[in-house]
Amino acid sequence: xxxxxxIAHPRLELRGITKIYPSVIANENVDLIVHPGEIHAVLGENxxxxxxxxxxxxxxxxxxxGEILWENREVHIASPAEARRMGIGMVFQHFSLFETLTVAExxxxxxxxxxxxxxxxxxxxxxxxxxxxxxDPHRLIHSMSVGERQRVEIVRCLLNNPKLLIMDEPTSxxxxxxxxxxxxxxxxxxxxGCSILYISHKLDExxxxxxSATILRxxxxxGTASPKEETKVTLAQMMIGxxxxxxxxxxxxxxxxxxxxxxxxxxTIDPFGTTLKDxxxxxxxxxMVGIAGIxxxxxxxxxxxxxxxxxxxxxxxxxxxxxxxGKLNPAQRRLLGLRFVPEERLGRGAVxxxxxxxxxxxxxxxxxxxxxxxxxxxxxxxxxxxxxxQFNVKCGGDQALAGSLSGGNLxxxxxxxxxxxxxxxxIVAQPTWGVDVGAAQLIRQALIELxxxxxxxxxISEELEELFMICDRIxxxxxxxxxxxxxxxxxxxxxxxxWMSGEFNHDNAEVAHA
Length: 514
Ligand SMILES: Nc1ncnc2c1ncn2[C@@H]1O[C@H](COP(=O)(O)OP(=O)(O)OP(=O)(O)O)[C@@H](O)[C@H]1O
Fold this sequence. Notes:
By secondary structure, the protein is of the alpha/beta class. It has helices at residues 50-57, 80-86, 103-110, 117-130, 146-158, 176-191, 203-209, 232-240, 299-307, 330-335, 356-362, 377-390, 407-419, 437-452, 464-470, 493-500, 506-513, and strands at residues 12-21, 24-34, 39-44, 65-70, 73-75, 88-91, 164-168, 195-199, 212-217, 220-225, 257-266, 276-284, 288-292, 318-320, 323-324, 338-341, 370-371, 374-375, 425-429, 456-460, 473-478, 481-482, 486-487. The protein starts with 11 loop residues before the first strand and ends with a helix. Residues 21, 24, 26, 44, 46-52, 394-395, 404-409, 434, 436 line the site of adenosine-5'-triphosphate.
């Protein structure tokens, strides 16, 4: 009789995985090993090939070469349904939930087997209680915060008893408290033997959570690390192959008011949106003002009102460079020097099925690209190529389709496209969302340079650390109301954090600010 203990095999082993797209090798000869109960980070710059690798493991994309071993047996994962049957779950960055359906209805649509509604509701309650992920199966999705929606996605995965859970940038939409809760759940799952593959650009989170890391650069594995034994700086160096660039905010002279919002109240057109209530704001030439807040508190509506996507019933209320623009559409506001970057990069910021060059043409107000109604494609392409070079966008050239770019690279292109149109007023939502640490500094520095040149810059971001790094003044939006704007140096993360829950009083704060 063989009495020796069974050998613990890796849960997942990739050997020599290669995936080639027409213009780029997304994964080249990638090896990766994940053990049972291990939380393993996949680190790398934008376009390094992380999402492609995860999609291969989840059966969305087929590799061109290489082997996948699942619990020591070679497998060919033909589809996500097959991945789920094997015990692989994936929580995507963009949730695919129907707002008008309940939690249970959404989960039942995504299940591969049919379960009676009452039994499903019971199982959802059981799993959510067991893992400390409070979710009411009968609640409608539209009434839930982003963090709660993510819980629904995780519960959906847990109902399949996964042995491997893939999380692609799960915290970019979460509040700091929700991040801590998520980590508790993931640690608990790992302790029970579930393996976790974790993609994030937030190095402090990787250090707090992950046992090991595989680092990718240009599709190849450049090393492995134990994140807890590294520093943020050494991890960044491994990722980008050089030191992390810094960004510098020097004092400037502030000039005339270029963006003025005066007692702006606006009912939302989205049935699940936020109504704006008596917003007052001013951004002057040469200053960068930040708006902090938890997503869903009126940021989207404020941006729509400022950009012209939603016009006002009266002209007054929003002024750009002294002109009342309330009734003007986005193209008319662009002619006055207003440029903006929406939060949603696919669909709003760019058309995925168009080339980068045509995406540049879409928002242009530049006389060189369109002269008397005639388009100069030579100039359009040259402009797009300049954005690609200046913002280090990794892509197959100006004819590459926007949808073929990795998330962070598309973000760099969209922000770069607006910065390079010489704005007078620049409004950016989530400027570094999904962007790697090196590129994030590049974008922040580019915004600082705009401000130094006298542009009025408004940044709407959920990342407090970022706002404190680049802004002269900061305000908070909560439930459609805007707090007073205070000098960044006179406030603290704690105060701004408190205001984020809506606890601000204009009278007191203005006295404090005076
Ligand atoms: N469907 C596709 N067609 C063509 N090229 C693609 C496609 N999907 C990905 N690529 C390319 O493969 C490379 C790797 O992309 P991937 O999305 O895996 O990167 P990533 O590391 O996840 O980046 P990010 O951090 O920006 O999300 C990129 O250069 C991207 O442009």
